[in-house]
Specification:
With 150 residues, the protein is an alpha+beta fold. The chain has three helices and eight strands; from the N terminus they run αβββββββααβ. The chain has a single domain, classed as Peptide deformylase (Peptide Deformylase, Alpha-Beta Complex). The strands form two sheets. Strands 1-2-3-6-7 form a five-stranded antiparallel β-sheet. Bound molecules: cobalt (II) ion.
C-alpha cells in the first residue's frame, strides 16, 4: 500500500474525462487500496482516481459509514436538493456552498466486479456526487457559490 500524491487545481489532468474500466485487474485492486489509504491519510471523505493522476472511473468514499469503493460509478436516480459547504483535497484551503441532490442511487462495480447499488443521503450522497463529478473533469468550485479561502 502507498499514499499517492494528490494533484491540485491548475493541473490539466483534473479537467480530463476519465475512461471506463473494462475489467477488474490486479492494477485496479492496487489503485483502490492506495486510493483508500491516500484518502484516509489526507482525512478526506472521498477521492477520485484523476486526483491521483489516474484517468480511470474509480472512486473511494467514506463519509463516516464505512469505505465505499466503486468502479465505473453512475448515478441512477437523484432526489431533492440540498445546499451545503464543500471542500476538495485538490483545491486546498477553499470551501464553497454547493447545491446537490439530497438523495442519490448510485451503481458501480465493487472490487470483485459485482454490481453494487448504493442508496445514499446526506454527506454520503454529497461525496458520491462530488467524486463522480471528478471523473468528468468537474470540480466543486465550478458549481459553488460563496467560495471562500480558509
Ligand atoms: Co474533490
Amino acid at each position: 500500500m502507498a499514499v499517492y500524491k494528490i494533484i491540485e487545481v491548475g493541473n490539466k489532468i483534473l479537467r480530463d474525462h476519465a475512461k471506463k474500466v473494462p475489467k477488474i485487474t490486479p492494477n485496479i485492486l492496487k489503485l483502490l487500496d492506495n486510493m483508500a489509504e491516500t484518502m484516509y491519510d489526507a482525512k478526506g471523505v472521498g477521492l477520485a482516481a484523476p486526483q491521483v493522476g489516474v484517468l480511470k472511473r474509480v472512486i473511494t468514499v467514506d463519509a463516516g459509514d464505512g469505505l465505499i469503493e466503486l468502479v465505473n460509478p453512475i448515478i441512477l436516480k437523484s432526489e431533492g436538493h440540498e445546499t451545503d459547504n464543500e471542500g476538495c483535497l485538490s483545491v486546498p484551503g477553499t470551501t464553497g456552498d454547493v447545491i446537490r441532490a439530497a438523495k442519490v442511487e448510485v451503481s458501480g462495480w465493487d472490487r470483485t466486479g459485482a454490481e453494487r447499488v448504493i442508496n445514499a443521503s446526506g454527506l454520503q450522497a454529497r461525496a458520491l456526487q462530488h467524486e463522480i463529478d471528478h471523473l468528468d473533469g468537474v470540480l466543486f468550485i465550478d458549481r459553488a457559490i460563496n467560495i471562500k479561502k480558509i
